């Protein structure tokens, strides 16, 4: 719905509003206001154990609940947020919202699953990232093991030596770490071995043609085997069909996320999924 026109103009295409043009500054201003008005909220997508079919985790994904436009997806504002630095307060707010939500689910007696938050490249480059995360965890009195951070391959490979130190610090705090979008960047397998991560997420692009493209199927199988050799849990992203799921199961993949099970949903709906799972 938002398309970039040239360098400076964004345009919301809304059938119901007849289209609304916004330049970059307007867009930035709107995003800033959204942040202040708490319009940026986490939706949650289940991570499902392939062997048992049960929900074993969740990923928090930011949504902009615009009062006029409705729900705006992150692909439409994260790039600008990265560019302007607004991603820092947005990421921080997400972190606090998610920590509080985990506590609320605990208090409601729901299963104590880990919840993952996506960390942006800019956040990852902050010198005080670990302290900031520690503060959010402490404020909500959370067991750090309940919080997982998703980092992309390109983000950690960019300054791999520096990343190893940051990742170690986060692991020592007790957090879970996962490498997101695996297979889309330049992976250096030497570093993969050195990164103290728990989980590897196979990018959706390999999953989408899994059942029709033997090369993608071979890559997925190899990534699963390699991850297990390294002691990592493997999650497949973007599973949309039963056939894809069967193939991943045959290859020993541990968990999956995808529309087949559920889209990312608001906290109240995720809670219903968790309760249904308890029965
Ligand atoms: P990601 O972290 O790789 O998240 C997975 C994306 O795949 C999500 O898109 C999810 O809705 C989508 N997805 C899940 N299952 C399926 C499926 O079966 N089919 C298809 N077609 N898509 C599926 P979403 O929520 O639009 O987020 C897109 C990206 O935006 C994320 O990719 C992540 O890189 C970024 N993002 C989202 N929330 C945050 C956030 O809070 N902070 C930061 N820094 N980035 C975020
Ligand atoms: Mg992610
Ligand atoms: Mg991903
Ligand atoms: Mg992605």
Automatic annotation (TrEMBL):
List, for all copies, the residue spans of the domain called EAL.
24-278
Please indicate which superkingdom the organism of origin belongs to.
Answer: Bacteria
Q: What is this protein called?
A: Putative signaling protein
* Species of the source: Oryzomicrobium terrae
Tell me the classification of the organism that encodes this protein.
Answer: Bacteria, Pseudomonadati, Pseudomonadota, Betaproteobacteria, Rhodocyclales
Identify the segment of the full-length protein shown. Answer: 464 to 742 of 742
């Amino acid at each position: 719905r938002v398309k970039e026109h040239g360098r400076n103009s964004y345009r919301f295409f809304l059938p119901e509003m007849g289209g609304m043009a916004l330049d970059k500054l307007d867009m930035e201003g709107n995003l800033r206001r959204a942040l202040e008005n708490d319009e940026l909220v986490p939706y949650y997508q289940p991570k499902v154990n392939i062997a048992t079919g049960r929900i074993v985790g969740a990923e928090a994904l930011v949504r902009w609940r615009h009062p006029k436009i409705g729900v705006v997806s992150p692909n439409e504002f994260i790039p600008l947020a990265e560019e302007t630095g607004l991603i820092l307060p947005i990421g921080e707010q997400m972190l606090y919202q998610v920590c509080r939500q985990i506590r609320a689910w605990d208090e409601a007696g729901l299963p104590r699953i880990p919840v993952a938050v996506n960390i942006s490249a800019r956040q990852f480059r902050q010198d005080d990232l670990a302290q900031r995360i520690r503060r959010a965890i402490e404020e909500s009195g959370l067991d750090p093991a309940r919080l997982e951070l998703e980092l992309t391959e390109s983000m950690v490979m960019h300054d791999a030596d520096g990343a190893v130190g940051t990742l170690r610090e986060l692991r020592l705090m007790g957090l879970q770490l996962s490498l997101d979008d695996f297979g889309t960047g330049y992976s250096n397998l030497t570093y993969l071995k050195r990164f103290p991560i728990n989980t590897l997420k196979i990018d959706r692009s390999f999953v989408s043609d899994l059942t029709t493209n033997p090369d993608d199927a071979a890559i997925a199988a190899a990534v699963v085997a390699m991850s297990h050799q390294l002691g990592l849990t493997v999650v497949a992203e973007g599973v949309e069909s039963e056939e894809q799921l069967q193939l991943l199961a045959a290859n020993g993949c541990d968990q999956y996320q995808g529309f087949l099970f559920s889209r990312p949903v608001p906290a109240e709906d995720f809670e219903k999924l968790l309760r249904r799972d308890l029965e």
